[in-house]
Design brief:
Elements lengths: L1 H12 L5 E12 L9 E17 L4 E6 L6 E4 L14 H12 L8 E7 L9 H16 L6 H16 L6 H8 L4 E6 L4 E6 L5 E10 L3 H22 L11 H6 L8 H26 L2 H19 L4 H11 L4 E7 L4 E8 L5 H14 L7 E5 L6 E4 L3
Parallel strand pairs: 3-5
Antiparallel strand pairs: 1-2, 1-12, 2-5, 2-6, 3-4, 6-7, 8-10, 8-11, 9-10
Helix pairs in contact: 2-3, 2-4, 3-4, 3-5, 4-5, 6-8, 8-9, 10-11
Bound molecules: alpha-D-galactopyranose.
């Protein structure tokens, strides 16, 4: 992939790149919408990624090209304006550049940027964060900036919050940065701590992309974010010391006096977040004991909670999860990522194969005759983002 990225860069910009980088997509293993609520989350970097090539310029222009084709998008870095429509992908690398400048790391001149991807976008596998991380790592190597991994993750998250305008948490950027083959990344978002948890070799991941994406995806995500903040405010009237929604244990949550400010919606969102956080902790413990069947049950419980209480599932995802959970070789399945469309992931034993995946798709087609057919792939865990100067 890196070589096709270099070839693209050379043919479009008529020069060789100085730096290449890549960053992986991710599976959200468990911890749905816990990250921006100060909770814990487990994710895995996968072997699908975005590769980028970068080269310096002497002026104040940045030029961006992707494997979608078309003319490069040209940006005057002295007056960077948010792009829309077909050019909106440029907001991710541009947002990262602006955050670097804001953090005192101003390259002083422009750059050329090309990228290629084998990560489906809009599938909930975090192609946005991969693009941010590939840019951030690449620009750091290009300009000899040194930035600790934790700072890099936070900078990419700010790029998405501030310039792209999505109030996401730390999950996607954290996993794309800290991912490691055969490991999950465990993030404690309240303390910004990243750990790696070994995944037993016999676990396999299968991604079923529903190929459906809600047209109001970003505004629904922002709405859930707001509802969680409001639920926290109500809880703080009784427990003023609570800083984050995910900090409330399910036991304390059950004892709450439901006062006038706590609507059914707030109750449902808060119930999901508090119980989901407890599930993440339980899964870390169960993985260390190798109890994969119990882990699978919690994945399913997570999906049901997303569907019923957080209401970010879709009929397509519910159908996929229901079909998958009936399979002997499947430990558990759930929607992965923000929801409102995108993909379901299944954690399986090695006995689950392409024929089983095809059978699930046929059953799905019978149950959902008007829905697009899902795209399926087997994902392996992979390493986190990396950049290097190209040897000449
Ligand atoms: C998206 C966001 C993440 C996280 C998940 C839901 O992937 O980018 O920060 O909130 O949704 O868990």
């Amino acid at each position: 992939m890196l070589s096709s990225c270099e070839r693209q860069f050379e043919s479009v910009f008529q020069k060789v790149p100085m730096v290449t980088s890549f960053a992986p997509g991710r599976i959200e293993f468990i911890g749905n919408h816990t990250d921006y609520n100060g909770g814990e989350v487990l994710g895995a970097a996968i072997d699908r990624r975005i590769a980028a090539a970068l080269g310096p310029r002497r002026d104040h222009t940045a030029r961006f090209v992707s494997d979608e084709g078309g003319d490069p998008v040209v940006v005057d870095l002295r007056n960077p304006v948010r792009r829309s429509g077909r050019e909106s992908w440029v907001n991710y690398p541009l947002g990262v550049y602006l955050e670097l400048v804001g953090a005192g790391m101003d390259p002083g001149t422009g750059f050329d940027f090309g990228c290629v991807s084998d990560l489906p976008s809009g599938a909930g596998l975090s192609s946005s964060a991969a693009l941010e991380l590939a840019t951030a790592r690449g620009l750091c190597v290009l300009n000899d900036f040194t930035l600790a991994d934790e700072a890099l993750v936070l900078l990419c998250q700010r790029a998405e919050n501030n310039f792209v305008g999505v109030p996401c948490g730390l999950l996607d950027q954290g996993v794309s940065c800290f991912g490691q083959a055969d490991h999950l990344v465990h993030i404690d978002c309240a303390t910004v701590r990243f750990d790696r948890v070994a995944v037993p070799g016999q676990i396999h991941f299968w991604i079923f992309n529903s190929n459906q994406k809600h047209s109001l995806l970003d505004s629904l995500y922002a709405e859930r974010h707001r509802e969680c903040r409001e639920a926290l405010e109500v809880i703080r009237r009784q427990y003023p010391d609570v800083e984050h929604l995910a900090q409330v244990s399910p036991a304390v949550f059950r004892e709450l006096r439901v006062d006038a400010g706590f609507t059914e919606t707030h109750y449902a969102r808060a119930r999901h977040v508090t119980e989901e956080n407890a599930r993440v902790r339980a899964v870390v413990d169960l993985l260390s004991k190798g109890d994969l069947a119990a882990v699978g049950d919690l994945l399913l419980a997570s999906h049901n909670s997303s569907s019923v209480f957080f209401q970010n599932s879709t009929p397509a995802l519910d159908t996929l999860v229901q079909l998958l959970s009936g399979e002997k070789a499947v430990y558990g399945a759930r929607l992965t990522g923000g929801g409102f469309g995108g993909a379901a992931m299944a954690m399986t034993s090695p006995d689950f194969g392409p024929d089983d995946a095809e059978r699930i798709v046929s059953l799905y087609a019978e149950q959902m005759p008007h829905a697009p057919l899902p795209t399926v792939f087997h994902a392996r865990t992979g390493d986190g983002a990396h950049a290097a100067r190209r040897s000449t």
